[in-house]
Design brief:
By secondary structure, the chain is an alpha+beta fold. The chain has four domains: about 90 residues, no CATH class; about 70 residues, GMP Synthetase, Chain A, domain 3 (2-Layer Sandwich), CATH 3.30.300; about 60 residues, no CATH class; about 60 residues, no CATH class. Helix content is about 30%, strand content about 20%. The strands form three sheets. A five-stranded antiparallel beta sheet has the order 2-1-4-3-5. The mean pLDDT is about 85.
Length: about 400
């Protein structure tokens, strides 16, 4: 990822600012919010909202009260209140939109016990913060080695330091409950900081780590998706997708979130389709549904005695046959309906250039006329013999 003023370089890090999600323009992260009220002035006599939204390491946001009345803007680095000490984050939203976000996330904006913003971060705060962040990869590697030595069935996926460097939060994934008390003692002794362990799901792990999906694009969860809705195999069935776990699973090992993107449209389209469990009764025999094409609004049926011979019917024709079955009217066969749906074979591919060859612009190679050169040589021989 990168902001509009910098391209992605080696290792996925932006070439311009090289901050990988903490640039001042606040465009290198997925949690950026567009402030569409920034160019509008407040009505007369109304005071600006005193809460702001602050982002930490491009993975979490929290709300803080600006009790000191500091002039803050999006992209400012601030020192905020923490349970012990202070943390450093980047302002992502100010003004009345913060109240809307707090109501959306069911936060009480009237609560006076909200954590406060101490000050705008000084250069000393920023230097200490950057120094702590530079140690995260090395500490993550060493903590994984400690977990392996203790034979703990867990995977430490990410480490986040507090802004003052006094505390580190370790994010891990595990199938079952893990007793990591000894691991915390060993890490606290080795790193000299307070340790907090926080378990996350596999989707949250993919969100923090990022990657490239099977579609060739960056993972939705690591670029713009912030809420994870449950995905079931029914979503694949409704969209007529093959139930292949290798194709339906994402980088996290769970079902892909994109299976829900078009599900509502498919469900809306399927309302006009008769149920696939309904059978068609004809004089020729009983027919079952074998396949459905939502885009062409076509259903394929086959007789019980001829399962390999399919007949294509439109949804209107299927409804008509079902109505006749309810009224106990005779239906001769499916062939008389399927015959109306036969289409003549059309050319699938047409040459857009016409009959012209693709090499018509190439310069033809000049070939020497060997016959002319031979005749010319014979004439020269004859002339020399006559002169002799």
């Amino acid at each position: 990822m990168g902001c509009s003023s910098c391209t992605t370089g080696k290792g996925g890090q932006p070439r311009g600012c090289r901050n990988n999600g903490t640039c001042g323009s606040d465009g290198c992260n997925k949690l950026t919010v567009f402030d569409w009220l920034s160019n509008m002035a407040l009505p007369g006599g109304e005071e600006p909202f005193d809460c702001v939204e602050v982002r930490f390491k491009n993975s979490r946001k929290e709300f803080f009260r600006n009790s000191e009345g500091l002039p803050l803007a999006i992209g400012d680095v601030v020192a905020t209140q923490a349970k012990s000490g202070h943390d450093v984050g980047i302002v992502t939203l100010t003004g009345s939109l913060v109240k809307v976000q707090m109501q959306k996330k069911k936060e009480d904006y009237k609560d006076q016990n909200l954590p406060k913003i101490y000050r705008k971060a000084t250069q000393k705060d920023i230097d200490k913060w950057q120094k702590c962040r530079s140690k995260e990869e090395e500490i993550k590697k060493r903590s994984r080695e400690m977990a392996i030595l203790l034979r703990l069935e867990m995977k430490i996926s990410d480490v986040e330091f507090q802004g003052d460097g006094s505390k580190a939060t370790f994010y891990y994934t595990a199938e079952d409950r893990v007793d990591f008390r000894q691991l915390i003692k060993d890490m606290a002794k080795a790193f000299g900081i307070r340790i907090e362990m926080r378990q996350i799901g596999y989707r949250q792990e993919a969100q923090r780590l990022g990657g490239i999906g099977s579609c060739g694009r960056e993972l939705c969860c690591s670029t713009w998706l912030t809420d994870f809705r449950s995905v079931s195999t029914a979503a694949a069935r409704y969209q007529q997708l093959s139930l292949n776990p290798l194709k339906l699973a994402g980088q996290c090992g769970k079902l892909k979130c994109c299976l829900n993107y078009e599900l509502d449209i498919y469900l809306e389209a399927l309302k006009d389709f008769p149920s696939q469990d309904l059978k068609l009764y004809t004089q020729k025999g009983l027919a079952f549904c074998q396949k459905t094409d939502i885009f062409k609004r076509t259903m394929w049926y086959s007789y019980k005695d001829e399962p390999a011979n399919w007949h294509a019917l439109t949804t209107d024709q299927v409804h008509e046959i079902l109505e006749k079955n309810k009224k106990k009217e005779d239906v001769a066969s499916l062939e008389q309906y399927a015959a109306d749906n036969l289409e003549e074979d059309r050319t699938v591919f047409e040459n857009a250039v016409g009959q012209d060859s693709l090499t018509r612009f190439d310069k033809p190679k000049r070939r020497k006329n060997r016959n002319k050169s031979r005749n010319k040589g014979r004439r020269n021989k004859k002339s020399t013999s006559r002169n002799a």
